[in-house]
Amino acid sequence: MAKITILGAGAMGSGICTPLINAGWEVRLWGTWLDDHLLDACEAGKPHPRTNVPLAKGVKLYRSADLNKALDGSDVVVMSVASGGVPKVTEMALEGISKAKALWLTSKGFCPDENGKIQLLPEAIRTIAKQKGVTIPPIVAIAGPVKANECAEGKPTATIFGCKDLDVSRKYAREARTEVYCIEATDDETGVEICAPMKNVYAIALGIADGLEEGTGFPHHNLKAATFNQAVKEMSLLGQALGAKPETAYGLAGVGDLEVTGLSGRNKVYGVRIGRGETAKDALAEMERLEQTVEGVPAAGLATTFVEQSAPQIKDQLPLLRAVHEILAGSSLSVVKILSEAVLPKMP
Amino acid sequence: MAKITILGAGAMGSGICTPLINAGWEVRLWGTWLDDHLLDACEAGKPHPRTNVPLAKGVKLYRSADLNKALDGSDVVVMSVASGGVPKVTEMALEGISKAKALWLTSKGFCPDENGKIQLLPEAIRTIAKQKGVTIPPIVAIAGPVKANECAEGKPTATIFGCKDLDVSRKYAREARTEVYCIEATDDETGVEICAPMKNVYAIALGIADGLEEGTGFPHHNLKAATFNQAVKEMSLLGQALGAKPETAYGLAGVGDLEVTGLSGRNKVYGVRIGRGETAKDALAEMERLEQTVEGVPAAGLATTFVEQSAPQIKDQLPLLRAVHEILAGSSLSVVKILSEAVLPKMP
């Protein structure tokens, strides 16, 4: 039985245990120093506090001090911590990662290095390994429309594994597959990695369009659909500028993940608040008071800088990214006007 | 001032009057023999019964008997009747159409000829004209995420004009554009025409996924997103099989229109009923009792036949179309199972 160690016992780390156990893996779940209360709940047989679903039976739990034990002899390591924690956990787990046959990655985001250069997470991990002189196995970027709680519950779920070596993504897409957790394989790591944090930014825009009904008394379905369309286009364009395949954004990683992220979740809820008339600042303060982290907010800033650094030639082709950035910065223009200018077709 | 005559005074025919008036056209709206009550309401200054929005000021109304007067000297004719009425109205208006510089088409659907051969509407119109020995001007297929009521209200709206002659679609995309009604131009008439009726079929599937929350007590967001993804893929594949560009389905005509159709509307509502546990038959009877025509139901049957006739080589690549067809035919399998098998990735 192949052994897999998941680093990070949050929503996605714990959620992915269900298909892995059902697919016959020996699953070890390691909690960071921030995850003790999550493991406490799981050990007490209670639902996981982040998914509200009990952890799959048979998962072995490891506390933060037991990282080496958790990694010992594992065939696959899965990085599932919040994006900000990826560099630190990568360093801590580097030896175990180097001995594994693959490093899977469900963490998503932009990762600034000490010089302010923003990297996608696989590149950041490779850079750290290189600096330490350690060789790491192929990285499999995991994305697609996966709400962790539904994954944990065994609800039907489609996901995508992206590895530069297609044989590797195919192998694991077969080996982690269950009847309800079904995996597409691609060699487009970059395409998959670009879509994941960008969709959090664009989900804010979708939420704004949703909120306009409450704010103005009228639904703005046409504007929401045009916003969705523009978001997909921008994910595809940005991916292509970085060497990704255009179609990745048109599939599960882009269209699919944007659809699910726009249905619920904190980015969308934050957007709804703005759409109904709260200022971006007040809405964020309220989300923070409720202890609801809005990933799309820092992602919007990081994405903007990332584009300036890595794809400046297409900066003007991403008006929706700019629009979200402007709205979050507290623009005095109406959000309808800002969104409309960003997403409605230009004069042909 | 250019003259435009809209044939059909329903939701879309009346809705599109707003941008056309605002763009400076002389607009004539002709009602069919079924539209008298709609024109009555407009003439009385009441909201249009289908959009709940008053007709744009300055539109000239014509009753069904005054077709020739309505068409006299018009630069553009717009076909906006229900798809079943397109052949008859085409024949009636053929002389006026032949004298115009373009025929725009907001009607959408599959059109069976007397031998049961199913055509897309532009082809059906061209066939009728040819049979009558009449030359007609270029056809401009109009689609995209446009709720007619929002268009009528002047809410921000993105749409797409598709004409085989790109100069023609560009010309009208510029001339009908307003600040809030913005038009993309393409030469992919087929791509635009395929997406429009197919999205009604797929919107039923999205509704089913939505209804599962009520039916099973659990949201099925992951399944809904995978369904959305598969629907877009199938629209693109079917379009390509018929000579369309793959990207048309990934833009306003496909992704955009599916998004807006999945947000509300009768196809979605019908799907929700099935998702929450009604049989397809009972749900349809209830919709009929409420006088809510569900366009996606006949479209699912016509689309299936259309594929068999015109693109049999990709029949097996459209599992979601087949799934909707099976569900509507009253399959005894659970809808979750049928949808899952259709939309989750196959073993790679």
TrEMBL record, chains A, B:
It is an enzyme of class 1 (oxidoreductase). Substrate binds at K108, R266, N267. GO terms for biological process: carbohydrate metabolic process; glycerol-3-phosphate catabolic process; phospholipid biosynthetic process. The active site is at K199. Residues 188-330 form the Glycerol-3-phosphate dehydrogenase NAD-dependent C-terminal domain. Residues 3-167 form the Glycerol-3-phosphate dehydrogenase NAD-dependent N-terminal domain. NAD(+) binds at G8, A9, G10, A11, M12, G13, A148, R266. It catalyses: sn-glycerol 3-phosphate + NADP(+) = dihydroxyacetone phosphate + NADPH + H(+). Its EC number is 1.1.1.94. One of its GO terms (cellular component) is cytosol. Keywords: Lipid biosynthesis, Lipid metabolism, NAD, Oxidoreductase, Phospholipid biosynthesis, Phospholipid metabolism. The keyword Oxidoreductase applies. Belongs to the NAD-dependent glycerol-3-phosphate dehydrogenase family. This is Glycerol-3-phosphate dehydrogenase. It comes from Apibacter muscae.
